[in-house]
Design goal:
3-stranded mixed beta sheet, two-stranded antiparallel sheet, 5 strands
């Protein structure tokens, strides 16, 4: 059930949600590329780059926690049909993690299906998967509920991942979930993939998006304000009420200035820490608590920032 601020009816919220969806659908081409981008024919593989580096770092620190998963003959047919380039030496765990981190943006659609992707990205019910504001996340405290929902989504997906552990505590290659994907030759289909890495990839996507969908403190550790995707900006966005709009300039992962390079590096470290928390050691509850500690470190709100002080003088605002 959608929330409504005091004095606003649920009917009004639904009307604004429908208007936002219509506006996003009308802007299909630009809407299909947002946040740290996934690899497509028009965008760099930012999520894939961050995630692969984080997994390699986590494995280097504890090789036994995430043993390589062999790619079977059946899996090979799927892997060879993926519409993006895999890093060298990718095993089934790494492949599945990358497919999972792409899922938040694609939902089984091809990267050229811009109209469908626009509707996916503009769905008011899934903004938590991208650490963005809901329609009702209005100032003076619109950032806190947006971040809280993002945190809830991440921990929910980490919990789902932990339901797919083997008795020895490592990810179970045989415990699989069906995931819709769009392949290069076979098109849209469904594949069975190790559930631990599917769900962990979805959690990582939201965590990584929190770095490109927010203004942050100079060290990139705390959020000063969450951005909005749903409020149409061509009709005159009232930032004092709805917060700043999504910025494609924050989505880049190549050719970066110092601010965005720092942001990308911290996003990578946060991703490594979340992977390490999920891999353990410890019980399921202990690992989930460790994931919460990671979010305490990288997903907190720095108070006192608003439109009047230019979101604490945010350099991203320029």
């Amino acid at each position: 059930m959608r929330r409504s601020p005091a004095g606003r009816s649920s009917t009004a919220s639904r009307g604004r949600a429908a208007a936002a969806l219509a506006a996003v659908a009308a802007l299909a081409a630009p809407a299909a590329a947002r946040a740290y981008t996934v690899s497509t024919f028009v965008s760099d593989g930012c999520h894939e780059k961050i995630t692969d580096g984080a997994l390699r770092a986590a494995r280097a620190a504890d090789p036994d926690a995430a043993p390589a998963l062999a790619i079977s003959r059946d899996d090979r047919a799927f892997v060879d049909d993926l519409p993006f380039e895999l890093p060298a030496g990718s095993d089934l765990a790494a492949v599945t993690l990358l497919v999972g981190v792409r899922d938040n943006d694609l939902k089984g659609r091809g990267s050229t299906d811009l109209q469908a992707l626009a509707l996916i990205h503009g769905d008011p019910a899934t903004q938590d998967e991208h650490c963005l504001r809901d329609l009702d996340d209005l100032e003076p405290d619109g950032t806190s509920p947006a971040v809280a929902r993002c945190r809830g989504f991440i921990l929910g997906r980490v919990g789902d991942a932990l339901d797919h552990l083997a008795p020895d505590g490592t990810p179970d290659a045989a415990s699989r979930v069906a995931l819709p994907v769009a392949l290069a030759i076979r098109g849209e289909t469904s594949v069975l993939l190790p559930g631990f890495y599917v769900h962990l990839g979805q959690a990582l996507h939201a965590l990584q998006d929190s770095f490109s969908h927010s203004y942050r403190t100079a060290d990139s550790m705390e959020i000063t304000v969450s951005l909005t995707w749903l409020h149409p900006i061509d009709d005159g966005l009232d930032e004092a009420m709805a917060g700043p709009p999504h910025s494609s300039e924050l989505d880049r992962c190549v050719g970066l200035d110092d601010l965005r390079a720092t942001r990308l590096a911290v996003a990578g470290e946060a991703s490594r820490a979340l992977i390490a928390a999920a891999l353990g050691p410890g019980t399921r509850d202990e690992r989930l608590a460790a994931a919460g500690t990671v979010l305490d470190t990288y997903l907190t709100v720095s108070p006192g920032c608003d439109e009047a002080n230019a979101w604490c003088g945010a350099p991203e605002h320029a």
